[in-house]
């Protein structure tokens, strides 16, 4: 069973509730437990993420550098001393990475640890947030891996199957409208190939 430690640096309880829905989708293929439970009040970690985000903000861009943020998180004993644990970080500040103007977040295997980091700054609505949660958690558990058929490398490996949550969109507008197209179609969150990837 995977144990994910949640660091929720957002004010909205709703974000945790939507994360729960994404975890229910994932739980069809992977046994995952998240602590503390999403949507619960966790003031100490909220303040911790606010502090780390401020420390990792580029003074001119006013955006948080994702690797600098992870360097701060990994400096915590509870993260560094537990090789098994996976980490999920939510924040409201806009994120960027080297070579990118911005990003919704991403999955990083960094210094031997797993991290999913997600910013709500550019999220359009609840369906869009669900989409981003399911997508990034999918990466953490191996969906659309390197070398699989129907994938393409574009900022990581992504699925090419239509209506799969593991497809990649490169703009906020495309990402949000794809999330709505998926919702309307009632397609499974993960396509059959990505479901197999998640079961491994
Ligand atoms: Zn992706
Ligand atoms: Zn897929």
Task: Tell me what you see in this structure.
- The protein has 200 residues and is of the alpha/beta class.
- It has a single domain (2-199), classed as Collagenase (Catalytic Domain) (3-Layer(aba) Sandwich).
- Helices cover 38% and strands 20% of the residues.
- It is built from seven helices and nine strands.
- Strands 2-1-4-7-6 form a five-stranded mixed beta sheet, with helices on both faces. Strands 3-5 form a two-stranded parallel sheet. Strands 8-9 form a two-stranded antiparallel ribbon.
- Strand 6 (105-110) and strand 7 form a beta hairpin.
- Helix 1 packs across helix 5, helix 2 crosses helix 3 and helix 5 (126-140) crosses helix 6.
- The longest helix is centred in the middle third of the chain and has 15 residues, at 126-140.
- The protein is globular, with a radius of gyration of 16 Å.
- It binds zinc ion (ZN) (2 copies).
């Amino acid at each position: 069973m995977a144990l994910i430690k949640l660091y929720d640096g957002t004010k909205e309880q709703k974000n945790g509730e939507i994360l729960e829905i994404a975890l229910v989708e994932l739980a069809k293929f992977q046994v995952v437990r998240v602590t503390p439970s999403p949507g619960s009040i966790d003031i100490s970690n909220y303040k911790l993420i606010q502090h780390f985000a401020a420390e990792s903000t580029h003074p001119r861009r006013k955006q948080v550098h994702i690797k600098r943020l992870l360097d701060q998180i990994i400096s915590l004993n509870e993260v560094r001393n537990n090789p098994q644990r996976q980490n999920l970080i939510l924040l409201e500040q806009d994120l960027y990475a080297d070579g990118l103007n911005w990003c919704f977040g991403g999955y990083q295997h960094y210094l031997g640890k797993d991290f999913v980091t997600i910013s709500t700054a550019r999220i359009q609505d609840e369906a869009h947030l669900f989409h981003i949660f399911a997508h990034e958690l999918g990466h953490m558990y191996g969906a659309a891996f390197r070398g699989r058929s129907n994938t393409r490398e574009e900022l990581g490996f992504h699925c090419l199957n239509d209506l799969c949550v593991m497809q990649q969109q490169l703009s906020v507008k495309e990402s949000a409208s794809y999330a709505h197209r998926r919702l309307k179609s009632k397609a499974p969150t993960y396509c059959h190939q990505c479901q197999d990837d998640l079961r491994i």
